[in-house]
Amino acid sequence: MTARLLLSLPPRLAGKVAPATPAPSHWWLIDDAGGIRAGTSQDWPDVLPHPGPIIALAPVADVTLRQAAIGGLAPRQAAMAARLLLAEDNELNQQVAGEILKGWGACVDIAGNGRVALDLLAAEGAGHYAVVLMDLEMPVMDGREATRRLRDEGRFQDLPIIAMTAHVAGHGMKDSLAKGVNGYIAKPFEPEELLAMVRPYWRGLPDHALPSVESSFPAEADRAFAAGVAAISEIESAVLLRRFEGRLPFLARTLRRFVEDCHGWTDRLDAGLAQGDLEAALRQVHTLRGLAGTFAMSRLQSTLYDLEAVIKGGVVEPFVEIAEVDVQLRSLLAGLEQLPANLLELAVSADVRPVDAVLALLRDQLSEGDGEAEEVWRMNKGRLVGVYSPRQVAEIDHAMGQWDFDEALLILNSASQGGGGQ
């Protein structure tokens, strides 16, 4: 690693950095990867031959600071320096959008509503954020009002604002209350769509999409998780896994949070409607509809759309629609609860026996009605995705879950004889 030690402040950093408490043995090191790290002279004896004061580079993600410190940035390093503001009230949506953006190297600040977004922008100034991603539906102050107020201030006239909406495509831009935005993106969005939307305002972003920075996990753990998702009929697994490609550990954690948040969902909705708080009820339904879309739960998303429509139509006791949502949620959550919250659980529990040996053992156990077949299947179904197609894995998994070992054996044998993986 080559490194450069910042011993004095270039004129262009005036007002952007401040000296901290003097500590002669401590330094800030700027390496060739664009990293800025604190350490002592003992850490880097070759590049730190002389003592000096510690210099606080804050914010360290500011592209100006990095350019001044290391004399320019490679495209990926420049992308890493971009700062974006995400105005979104739902924590899961914050995590999903934030994960994608951070995976491309962005620094992301979060505002839980339009009021907080305005406060952050007022404090940081017009040039601090490369772009603002503004959800239109938020409590306290929605994205429409926040955008209007920003455009009323001269210094924010040119601030790029992208509206995010769970409404049908085109609705947000045609809505007069959404005037002033530079563009919109409908939720759920594909990563490529988000990248295309922010690219014009993200200077230094490479022409190709940046890869995820999340640590890789053993391939068998990824396959096992993918097989578990494919076994949940309420999820369009191909869509979901493509959408979170390279981010399966994050997806596993996020789906577990989704499960936790959805417990008691219909009870909370009933309570809100009983209290006459239609606005809160609509926001609750709208939020879950957006999440259902993000996680490729199209049937639930459609049912929530119907529920939202009847509430907007003035129905204060939509018992039939709520009951349908409840039935779907129960089935969906039961499947999701079988997924690991952490892919490391799968990594440490994987079976190391050859696949052929595992298949032979499974056939014997299933033919004998041995309950141990369920555990052998659980430990190995991820490894068998390459032998059987995701649909076949889902069918076997369902039969196992019903303890229908004859059916599971039939599918196992017929799929194998048919070549599998089709």
Task: Briefly say what this structure is.
The chain is of the alpha/beta class. It has 19 helices and ten strands. The chain has four domains: 3-70, no CATH class; 78-201, Response regulator (Rossmann fold, 3-Layer(aba) Sandwich), CATH 3.40.50.2300; 219-336, no CATH class; 351-417, no CATH class.
What does this structure look like?
The chain folds into 4 domains: 3-70, no CATH class; 78-201, Rossmann fold (3-Layer(aba) Sandwich), CATH 3.40.50; 219-336, no CATH class; 351-417, no CATH class. It contains 19 helices and 10 strands. The chain has helices at 63-70, 75-81, 91-103, 114-124, 143-152, 171-174, 191-198, 219-230, 237-243, 248-262, 265-274, 278-294, 298-312, 319-336, 343-349, 355-368, 372-380, 390-401, 405-417, and strands spanning 3-5, 18-19, 26-31, 36-40, 55-56, 83-87, 107-111, 131-135, 161-165, 183-186. A 5-stranded parallel β-sheet has the order 7-6-8-9-10. A 3-stranded antiparallel β-sheet has the order 1-3-4, with helices on one face. A two-stranded antiparallel ribbon has the order 2-5. The chain is flat, with a radius of gyration of 26 Å.
